[in-house]
Structure formats: structure tokens, C-alpha cells
Design a protein that fits this description.
mainly alpha; 66% helix; 172 residues
Length: 172
């Protein structure tokens, strides 16, 4: 349980929100329970978040930033070969879902348009475009190809979220 001790209340509320999502799911998240968990008045969360939606938006922004960072890190560490880069990014995607379950659920619970949320897809699209330029990927609409890859890896992540206990290591 996250308790607030005169530090950064906004961060404490986000952390407590993630705990609630981890335990009960996004739908169970309420600002009332959040305040109770953190040990502040019922009105205190409203100083930082207008409502549940603005809290979820903040959680999503943080989650998508970490998610995009993990995809970029995996891609960049995999070396120059497209197959190794794509494999490393797919594993990073699945690993993020497993290791950051509450973020993952919040991020994909409703459609949220933001620059931060778009960055992770942009990382994938740029990787596919680099593969096209090097001749390792067929030409064509890089956005459409990225959507197909995203859908496959997202499906694997979502379907297997409860079953992955040991993740494979990246190829390369």
C-alpha cells in the first residue's frame, strides 16, 4: 500500500492507482479509493487530477514513455540487422506487458491520442522503414506493415499475459 508522507502527492497517487489497477483492474479505480490508500482526504486527489480520466491519462503518459524507451533500447542494442531488431522489439513489447501489467492495462484500456502514445508506434514504423531502405523488408506502406506487426505482438502479449514465466532472450 502506498502511503503519502508530504512528498510528491501526484506521484503517490499515480503509484497507488497502478496498485489498484494491478489488484482489481482499470474499472475498479476510483479517486475515493485512491485517497484512502494514500491516506489523504477524499478531495486531495482532485488538486492533481480533475477526475478518473485525467488520472488515467497521466498513468498512460508515463506508461507509454517507458514503453517507447524499452522498444528503442531493445532495437538499438540488437545491432543493425532488421530481423534481430524486430525480434528484440517484440520481446521488449511482451516483457513490458508482463513486467508492467498495470501500465499495460491502462495504456490499452481506451484509445488515447497523444504524442507520447504515438512514439512507440513511430519507433516500430521507423524500424520497418530502415529495413525497407536496406532491402531486408519488402517495399510498401510502412504504416500498414507496422500495424500488422503491432497487432501480432500485441495479440501475443495480451493472450499470454498470464502464461509467460520466462521470456526468450533477443536474437542477435
Amino acid at each position: 500500500m502506498t502511503k503519502y508522507h508530504h512528498g510528491n502527492l501526484r506521484a503517490a497517487l499515480i503509484d497507488a492507482g497502478l496498485e489498484i489497477i494491478e489488484e482489481k483492474g482499470v474499472r475498479a479505480l476510483t479517486l475515493r479509493e485512491l485517497a484512502s490508500r494514500v491516506g489523504v482526504s477524499r478531495m486531495a486527489p482532485y488538486r492533481h487530477f480533475q477526475d478518473k480520466e485525467t488520472l488515467l491519462a497521466a498513468i498512460c503518459e508515463s506508461g507509454f514513455a517507458q514503453f517507447a524507451d524499452s522498444l528503442e533500447t531493445a532495437r538499438d542494442a540488437a545491432g543493425p540487422a532488421f530481423a534481430a531488431r524486430l525480434s528484440a522489439m517484440a520481446i521488449a513489447y511482451v516483457r513490458f506487458a508482463v513486467e508492467h501489467r498495470a501500465y499495460y492495462e491502462a495504456m490499452f484500456s481506451v484509445k488515447r491520442e497523444s504524442e507520447v502514445a504515438s512514439r512507440s508506434f513511430q519507433v516500430l514504423r521507423e524500424t520497418i522503414e530502415a529495413g525497407q531502405e536496406s532491402g531486408e523488408v519488402r517495399g510498401g506502406d510502412s504504416t500498414a506493415l507496422a500495424r500488422v506487426v503491432w497487432a501480432v505482438v500485441h495479440g501475443i502479449s495480451t493472450l499470454n499475459l498470464n502464461f509467460f514465466t520466462q521470456l526468450p532472450t533477443p536474437v542477435g
